[in-house]
Amino acid sequence: MLTLRDLPKYEALLALARQYPALNITAVETCLMFLRTATDVYGVLDTHFADYDLSMGKFMVLMLLKCSEEGMTPSECADRAGVTRGTITGLLDGLERDGLLRRLPHPEDRRCTIVQLTEGGWALLDRMLPQHFHVIADLLCQLDESEQKVLFKLLTKLRAGAQALQTETPVSSGHKA
Q1: Is residue 70 exposed (0-12), middle (13-18) or buried (19+ Cβ within 10 Å)?
Q2: Which CATH code, of 3.90.550.10, 1.10.1370.30, 1.10.10.10, 3.65.10.10, is assigned to 53-143?
Q3: 148 and 140 Cβ atoms separated by less than 8 Å
Q4: Which end of the chain, N or C, is surrounded by fewer C-beta atoms within 10 Å?
């Protein structure tokens, strides 16, 4: 069984390319290495966040609120985090249960609330962010600053390609012609 931990050998991709002429071996190898690396990075971050009883999603919400002095509505949180309203509700509920945020009545619209960090939320971020930034630096320590900038540019291009594919109208078979 092939897993993401087992990157296929060049010869295996070459055999697939004979069967599927559209297969770009370099693109497949690069994509698989990117996915494998992303899995490793997520693993490191998941372990780091677990030390603070957080998930990546909860951390993202805390950071969004840290950067918003007046707080945000739940829908603003969802939009800025790039998640659904249902997902943000679950994240906010958990953070509120943990005493890290509070929901307050919106000052101008009685139909919605404003979400803000509590003192406990501020204290947690103050305690964890130095270690968090150390973990990030350690993740990228194999690259010098110029390589990090090149990687950033390349990832920006990769993201643009992914976004373009997400907005394409699929053909009837579900595959591109």
Answers
A1: exposed
A2: 1.10.10.10
A3: yes
A4: N
